[in-house]
Each structure stands twice: as structure tokens, then as C-alpha cells.
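Training component of the fellowship. As part of building independent skills, the fellow (R.M.) carried out the full modelling exercise for a liganded target. The chosen ligand was magnesium ion. The inputs are recorded below so that the supervisory panel can assess the work.
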Amino acid sequence: MGRFHRHDDGTEHEHEGEHDHDHDHGHDHDHEHEGGPDHDHGHDHDHGHDHDHDHDQAPPLSTEHGDLSGYRTGPERVLVLERIFEENDRSAQVNRDLLDTAGIVGINMMSSPGAGKTSLLQHTLAGLDDPARVGIVEGDIETSIDADRLAGYGSQVALLNTSAGFGGECHLDAPMVGSALKRLDLTAMDLLFIENVGNLVCPAEFDVGAHHRVMVFAITEGEEKPLKYPVMFRSVDLVLVNKLDLLPYLDFDMDLFERNLRSINPDAAVIRVSARTGEGIDAWQSWLAERRLPSAAADGIRPAPRTMGA
Ligand code: MG
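Fellow's submitted model of the complex:
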């Protein structure tokens, strides 16, 4: 059992003694906010506090960015999640080995709902000389609406609905993708798009066995999203900044967005696109072309080193 205590400001929490957590309470709070939006950290608790608990042993569950006291089942969740991730990672490696053997480059496409993943994929397939060499695993909680939109370009499409999960899974995991791979003819393709479920949180946490992670970010979502959803933005190799055609109608500050993105992920490539007008799609096609290995399987050439854990 942890020790329960209450701060002067009325927040309460319990200290779990066993988890190690090198949180520094002498913190001087010097992370960069320069140029950031005027977000509110809700940081009103006073670190000159006078109660005497031992911070080396028992960190409070509230940390520097506001109140985390609602997360009391943290340690139990960590144990459960560790088991889930271990199992998922094993499965993801099986998927990746399968793709490597077949000479296929796997791209995990992620975004919030409505950012334009499916529209961009339609443009992408329409612009390819060899759409028949492309496979798509289409993830959605319900419906075949997007899978239907992607049918007819000559590519193989395998639909995954996640509604059988508790309330509908918010992401694809590696076993789900593995089951979709069984429905595709892997010998006929060299490029696989895995269109994840629209969500800015969970998909970033699950390796599905792809080689690259690409995120579609729509400028209607706001410049601050990299700061609010760092796990997603940190996990990707490329950010497609979509809905560029709307720029004249929005107050979106592209420089601020890119600064925010760089503060979270300095290495991600950025391509500005519009799935509506087709602007920037050629740059995205080039990015893809550089990563495809059209004759790798046929020639018995091992694929080049790639980003892991996508
Ligand atoms: Mg979609």
C-alpha cells in the first residue's frame, strides 16, 4: 500500500513505494516553450512545499505537467501493458520477417480521424504505374467505407474491422495485421500500406511489423498537436502535412507547427501535401519510390536496412 497525502492546494495522491521513477523535484522547469502557443500548464502547485516526504523513494503521481492523480492504477496498468506489448512485439517481428522474405516494404500510416489517410492513398494509388504491386491493410473500427474507396485501383485490399474489441479497438495491433497478411498474395507485391485506425494516441504504441511510420497531419488540427501528442509525433519517420489547400482560409502558422514538431522529433521528414489538389503528392511518391525494392525478392537481394519498430 502506498502512503496517502494531500497537498496544500487540495490535490491528493497515494505514493506507491516500489516503482522506480527518477523524477527530479528540484526541477527548474527549463524545457523549451519558446514560440509555443499560449497553452496553460495548469502548473499551480508550489514546489517550495514544506511536507516532508522522501522523493527518492516515493514520487507523487502528479508531475510537472498538471494533475495526474486520476491515474491511481498506474502500476497495475504497467504490468498488464508490458505483457500486451511483449506479445505484440513478437507478433510484429513475425510480420516484418514475412514482409522481408517477400521483399515488401511496409508503411504504417497513422493520423487522427479525418486527416486524410484514405484520400492520400487514393491519390497515391492513382499515380502509381504499378498499383497491382501494392497491398493495403485497411483498419477501421466499423464499416468497409474506406476499403471500398480504395478498391478499383488494381491493388489488393484486406479490411480489418476492430469492432470485436472492447468498444472497438482504437488501433491495429500486430496479430490483427498478421491475420490480414494471410489474406494477401505477398508474392505479387513489393509495397504494403497499413492504414491504421484514426487515432493520435494508441496506434503509435503498437508495432505492427511495418518498416516505416508515416503520419498524416491535417493543418485543421492546430499547430500545438506535436506538443500534446508527442508519442505519435516522436514515433514517425515522415509527416505528411495535409489539407494545404485550406491554408488561405485558416490561421494556421506553418512555421510554428514545424518548430513544435522539431522540438519533439528533429529527424522526421516533412512533406506538405493536398489530397484535394494533388499538390506535393509527387514529393510523397518520390519518398515512397526511394524506399521500394521492386526486384529485391526476385533477385534474392536482402532489403536495405530500414527503420525498425514501425
Ligand atoms: Mg481512412
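The panel noted the following from the submitted structure. Residues 5 and 13 are 6 Å apart (CA to CA). The two ends are 38 Å apart (CA to CA).
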